[in-house]
Amino acid sequence: MESKPYNPFHVAQAQFDKVAKMLNLEDGVRELLREPLREYQFVIPVRMDGGGVKIFKGFRVQHNDARGPAKGGIRFHPHETIDTVRALSMWMTWKCSVVDIPLGGGKGGIVCDPHHLSAREQEQLCRGWVRQIAKNVGPFQDVPAPDVMSNAQHMLWMLDEFEVIHNGRFPGFITGKPVGLGGSLGRTEATGFGVIFTLREALKEHGVDIAKTTASLQGFGNVSQNAFKLYDELGGKVIAISCWDQADKTSYTFKKKSGAGFQELLAITDTFGGIDKNKARDCGYEVLPGEAWIEQEVDILIPAALENQINKDNAGKISSKVKFIAEGANGPTTPEADEVIKSKGIFVIPDFLANAGGVTCSYFEQVQCNMNYFWEKREVLEKLDQKMTSAFTAVSELSKQKSLYMRDAAYVIAIDRVARAVKARSWV
Ligand code: NAD
After folding, report:
1. What pTM was computed for the model?
2. Which candidate in 100, 196, 252, 315 could, as Cys together with 230 as Cys, close a disulfide (CB 3.0–4.6 Å)?
3. 51 falls in which pLDDT band (50, 70, 90)?
4. Catalytic residue among 107, 237, 323, 387
5. What is the position in ligand 1's atom list of the atom closest to the CA of 149?
């Protein structure tokens, strides 16, 4: 039998349906929450450097804003689809809810590959995205942020365009801005550090000394680099790391049994998180196929690249040594793979809990912008640690109390809060 193509929105809905049933949600609430409230699709014309105009496709989806303005990144990716954006916006609703910040869920995207766009073309793309959606986003409606292949410079161009259109200064319109121009210290580290704060707590609960653990990571971009950095500082050893090779249009895994060097790898990595394979070989790394990251005999797996990376075809290859998975990426594990992971007795820190550090720090960025007073990095990271630790503890307690899989426990807490908000507002 031919298997259906992976659709992240169907995965997000399947995960929701399962928990909605457990929570015994009324039909109206269930129907409301399994769909986005609003979605926008548009085109963005860009005058290209080489002459002529190219048309790019743009999206913004607002899944739910009952608990506060929608919040979520804008992803630049050549394979972006509306269903990916729908799924990501829904996961944002649960993410903001599980860490209990007063924001809802949204997500955006542009179908593009910034590797092949000049800085001027990227600027036009960012400004064009804002022009098409400026009336439906804003500090009190929907607040964008960076995501895969978008960065602080892109956010600043977007802010600037929004401020031209609305004739004023609105630093709360977007987060992930450069420090000194409304950005928060610690935002760069926030998602990756948040992953490790939750992992640290999970290891502590299981009586495992982090300094005696090994890990294999997928991705070497913003999330993975910062997760690697803090894990390394806490004494953990990264053995393997996989990332995309733009020139070869495939991924590779870089392995060093004695332990990969964070600074060593960073020095041979491009701005998109691609490691130079020839230089890696010179530094003593084995260069293996991209999928090899998942088969490593390590204690911890940290998928931090894209969705659908642990699936029914490869979950069986996870080594019996692996005891923890901390999901840095959004939606890296399919429901079929979850069943395999459960049967192997692996402890999972689910994506929307593990990687909630980014949006939590974005919330801190908004708070600081509103006060026009900015905290020191230490203060930001301390507050982040507190939020992540208490969210992890609540999920883990519920998981133990009710014998729930960690993903289900996180969903129960998150969905219940949003369901209460839509009911309290009498939306259903
Ligand atoms: P990024 O663009 O900085 O890095 C992505 C990394 O993944 C790169 O190293 C790239 O080479 C690698 N990659 C891409 N395709 C791959 C493949 N097929 N195999 C192996 N590696 C591959 O992105 P990021 O910001 O680090 O985001 C990574 C994931 O984390 C995404 O799922 C994103 O939605 C999620 N996330 C990001 C943030 C954030 O604050 N940046 C917050 C929450 C969740």
Report:
1. 0.94
2. 196
3. very high
4. 107
5. 2
